[in-house]
Amino acid sequence: MVNVLPEPGTPIQDFETPALVVDLDVAEANIRKMQAFANQHGTGLRPHSKTHKSPYWAHKQLDAGAIGITCSKVGEAEVLVDGGVTEVLIANEIVGKKKIARLARLEERANVVVAVDSAEVARDLSVAAEAQGVTIGVLVDVNVRISRCGVEPGEPSTTLAKIVDRLPGVRFDGLMGYEGHVTAETAAKRRIVSEAMAKFKFAKDEIESDGLPVRIMSAGGTSTYVDSAKTDHVTEMQCGSYIFMDGSYLDEMSDFDQALTVLSMTISRPAATRAVLDIGRKSMNSESGLPRVVSPAGAQLERLNEEHGILALAEEAQSLAIEDLVHLLPMSAAMTINIHDHYFCVRNGILEEVVPVAARGRFW
Length: 364
Description:
This protein is about 30% helix and about 25% strand. It contains ten helices and 17 strands. The two termini are about 30 Å apart.
């Protein structure tokens, strides 16, 4: 297979396309800004890696002060630990003896904590931990708003916490209460998050009233980080999308800047008002809406086929020629990243490093 990866020092104009391009200065500034906010409010930051799926970015977040990294699947956790990350939260229910056995093996190399919302799974974790000779940290997953996974606050969460605490091989570390993505104006968002976090606190208070200390209270995402960090009983946040941002988040907030684009090339100019790009649904996700043209001005993506992107060109863009480059902003960064093998990390338009999307496809 021919190696088409460019060498460090290559100008962006010479990249093979489509290419997933990250402006390092912007991404690193986003990392520092979120960490500074968490520090200012005395809240730990455990960034979610389901967007970037890479130990490279995880280490940048840890070097900035993150207390650990969050992921969704055992496969992602394995990639993180293989990449030298030693504090990992799997913020999801891990079910099935094979997956749980893999999780237990990871505990020999890292502190891996996992969310649980059933006694059955807690018991399976206990058996696997005992067999492996390790201790697995557990957060009881509490349903505070979105009615996805999670037990209800109050008696159900207290009962499950007590079951976990009594089991050998597992350690009750606290609670997880993800309030979900909240799209609302400031006052409404504050109210929604406050209501969710009140349920979260109720779960904590009920457990502690039974004599069981709750050390970790993990919540918060990019859309809610301001209000989550200002909530006294939240000890850590799981924000993830802030590192790159995408069209959906940029429509909603301006707290962080766009760091990621997909670079495409013009392959056909069949009409004055139409151009065709070498990008399609196989390299650019459109589930959350069609990607936006960042440059050149006057071009708009009209549709995506499997291998082609069709641009409509206003007058100022009608000079676009075959082999000209077009920068596109995905509406969902996470879904687009998961169909690429590499990040092309640049400063001032020059390639600094090619970084594998190491956990790409690790949904098991």
